[in-house]
From TrEMBL:
<protein>
    <submittedName>
        <fullName>Peroxisomal biogenesis factor 11</fullName>
    </submittedName>
</protein>
<dbReference type="GO" id="GO:0016559">
    <property type="term" value="P:peroxisome fission"/>
</dbReference>
<keyword id="KW-0472">Membrane</keyword>
<keyword id="KW-0576">Peroxisome</keyword>
<dbReference type="GO" id="GO:0005778">
    <property type="term" value="C:peroxisomal membrane"/>
</dbReference>
<dbReference type="InterPro" id="IPR008733">
    <property type="entry name" value="PEX11"/>
</dbReference>
<dbReference type="Pfam" id="PF05648">
    <property type="entry name" value="PEX11"/>
</dbReference>
<keyword id="KW-0962">Peroxisome biogenesis</keyword>
Amino acid sequence: MVADAVIYHPAVAHYLKFVATTVGRDKLLRTLQYFARFYAWYLLRTNATKDKIQPWEAVKKQFGLVRKVLRAGKNVEHFKAAAVAADNKNMDPVLRYTAVGRQLGYAGYLTMDLATLLDATGIRKSPNAKRLQQEAYRFWAAGITFSIVGQLYTLWRLRQREAKVDKKEGEGVVEGKRIAIERAASQLQLTSDLCDITVPLAALSWVNFDDGFVGLAGTVSSLLGVYSQWKKTA
């Protein structure tokens, strides 16, 4: 009876729906990957022995490789999203341009990342792999930058909308709640973007972030991604 109560619990059904999605599995793997990056750095800074650091280095490397394989071909999805956003003439012009920029940035990142897949898996080594990976990080940084600009603009627009709302009226109360929900979603995405942008900035040596900071920031953004995907599969 106890086993039945566990197996048929709604949380188990929700978990199965979550891990059935590629995004859900990727976010879990990403959380472990970036936590391992942070913890390996922490162990190194605290003078831990090599045999204690090595497993976390392996988690960081191998989970990163698994995620690279899983996202192969995902660039097409972002190229399509960019085209859809560009064709949406009803969207606010600023949000449309930032959406197109974001999607093209991610598409470029995934395309360059895909070009390094054979080298990363050891199937076929390429002398251009390092350069292609650097280009991938440039595209990723551009995509996240467009996303940050879009979220800041969204928050500014929400403040304008809120200033016009009369919260003493029934419709105003409903609109106020709607704005609060939209603001929370935008703030969550902005926080995630600000954490994520540390990765390409550090990889390109544009900002001198160490592995501990990048690993911690990546862990936070990954957990936010897990939270968002968990809510979507509820």
